[in-house]
Design a protein that fits this description.
Helix content is about 30%, strand content about 25%.
Length: about 170
């Protein structure tokens, strides 16, 4: 059954994390809704190979419309973490026990939202201590699936594993 997936994204996201993951999700017939501050805004990845149009403003988004959340890596999490609305959206998502998928350094946004304590996760190695300090159980592996609640991968080279594990979780 196709799922509705919210994507929290703004400028300087990792192009391949967004492009390859969203392409795979759409190929599996899942719906993608890009969320940022302003609907209609066009944002660009950090390598400027991707342009993404924002579908809905964070001010108008309804958590109940989504089955899963994707947060691509890159540096967009730095900008998103400065706005409490994104952190609250993530908190509501986590409290609703809906799937949250993040790659590379994107779990930093989950750390900021204070939703990683007790969860099994991975992150890129330079940020592993932040994840551990936030109370997560850190694994240095290609992909971690914490009971279809959190799926995380540490790097772009792990993207195929991340996509495969995410598609499996979304199919359930």
């Amino acid at each position: 059954m196709p799922k509705n997936i919210a994507v929290l994204v703004t400028h300087n996201f990792e192009d391949t994390h967004y492009d390859e993951t969203v392409e795979a999700f759409r190929a599996a017939r899942h719906s993608i809704l890009n969320i940022e501050a302003q609907a209609g805004k066009i944002i660009h990845g950090q390598h400027c190979t991707s342009a993404v149009t924002i579908d809905q403003s964070i001010a108008e988004v309804d958590l109940n419309n989504f089955d899963a959340l994707l947060i691509p890596g890159g540096h967009s999490h730095d900008l998103l973490s400065q706005d409490l609305r994104y952190l609250e959206f993530i908190q509501h998502f986590a409290n609703s026990h809906k799937l949250i998928m993040s790659i590379s350094n994107a779990p930093q946004l989950l750390i900021q939202a204070r939703v990683v304590a007790g969860h099994l996760m991975t992150i890129n190695k330079p940020n592993a201590s932040s994840l551990i300090d936030a109370g997560a159980v850190y694994y240095d592996v290609s992909v971690v699936n914490d009971n279809n609640l959190y799926i995380s991968s540490p790097s772009s080279t792990d993207l195929p594993y991340f996509i495969r594990e995410s598609l499996i979780a979304l199919s359930q």
